[in-house]
Amino acid sequence: MKHTGVIFKRILRDSRTAIIAWGIGLAVYAIFTVVIYPFVQDFKEINEMMKLPIMQAMLGDKAADVTSPGGFLGTYFFLMMPLITAVYSVLYGLGITAAEEDRGTLDVLLSYPLPRWQLILEKFAALVAALALMLAITLVGFVAGMIVTPSLEVNFGDLILAALNLLPINLVMAALTLLLSTILRSRGLVGGIVGTFVFGSYFVKTFSALVEDPLTNIRYASIFHYYGGSRMMLDGVDWGGALLLLVVTGALVALSLATFQRRDLGT
Amino acid sequence: MNNKSDIVIHIDGLTKHYGAVKALSDLHLDVYRGEIFGYLGPNGAGKTTTIRVLLDLIRPTAGRAEIFGLDVNRDAVPLHERLGNLPGELALWNHMTGWDLVDYLGGLRGGVDMNYVRELVRRLDMDMTRKVKACSSGMKRKLGLIQALMHKPDLLVLDEPTNGLDPLVQQTFHQLMREVRDAGRTVFLSSHNLPEVETICDRVGILRAGRLQAVERISDLKQLRFRWMTLHIRGDVDLAAFERLEGVSDVTRLVNGTIRFRVAGELDPVIKAAGQYHIVDLAYEEPSLEEIFLEYYGETETTETKER
User: Which value does ipTM take for this structure?
Assistant: First the structure.
């Protein structure tokens, strides 16, 4: 394996504007969430409200105590985050092979001494780095918000772990996009399928919280079940679930390598 | 030349079908070290398909190809180290400048001679600080040539290299190709332009509807070729006077005073016959490839092949 890291570095360099813009956007979201906390903190009735079926249907969880700092951040920030970052991860997944194949730049790259699998792995590794950088900027937003909101007392370590837990679910979404785009030749179709899958998956999880056993078991079919929910910062991250998402990511990437290695390009 | 050990590209029974479309059928071809080989054919003949198989971008339905004795699929990575490629429909990254491109692609390749890159930039008169998206198609073509040549590869594979280049740059390109050949390196270039292939190539393979029709030395081809001539003459013309001439055929009167005919071989008899008339204008056309096929092989194929 020669000239390792050239693609990785180039992609990160080319993505730096997007990474910073996304990081700042998420950081602003974090700051706004944090500074709202004092208003929620003393509003104990909100916990009764959160138990209403309509709220359960939206949040899909055994409601956390949203007046507690951990429950508040879990419910108002981390629960929704994958739906937001999904946009970046799915678009990135489309960019790994499909966008370059459509444009024709893949014909240039692959006439160089670069195996197809190395191209995919380096680009995928660059996604991990891009997400990590984005989340690091987001954490800076949290720190800024917490400085002006001393009543929101959370362990910074727990916050970092909750942010890290965002990686596996994003990687699964990107890997699924990658696999589908190596099989189907239409970016629009792939984007549509993955978008439906992500929102459908979220719906399955919220739905499972409303129904009785055994139907509630459908939650296992949702990637959001393995990500965890509003109680993430109260009960701790579900590392078993995170590991499972990483294993699935690995499997999806391996399948992508196999299909992409074999097929004709750009036809 | 033409020893077995000098074979650079060896294509053996190469076939590529896209469903019912036969893009390439049972292609056999050897290209030797130190030659400029022209791969000639009309659009849709299968030139690009052949090149994309050689680059392992697509996989053959049957048959195989080797370059430097290495299998184009199994040994693609080590093989690509020794190869420079210019795609026919070149796509580059719009946000990069010329120098970014050299940095990126040079990093993937290694072994780029920056002095040679600067020489190429100077000779092709390329502005490397300009972003790709601000480049004309001719400028993109120059960038494509620079990246194909920058590591002085043993084999250059160029798909329609002069498409979109202005005539002055074409001259530079021809000179560069001769230098590559003189250094003992090999060029495989596709074209649908016979005069260009005649100018720089040593041998030519003629592809039509996915089949290799012939492989000829350019020197042999030149003896066989013909052109069309149109004369605009003031006054009456005797068609028979031209029909009698050696090498002249298909004499027709287009409008009053304008005649068109085919000339093969030397022009001298035609010029002397025309000298008796008052010549207003004279036009001279290269035959189309289709006409050359008809001339050489006396057959038309109706199979339409879509070029990929």
Answer: 0.88
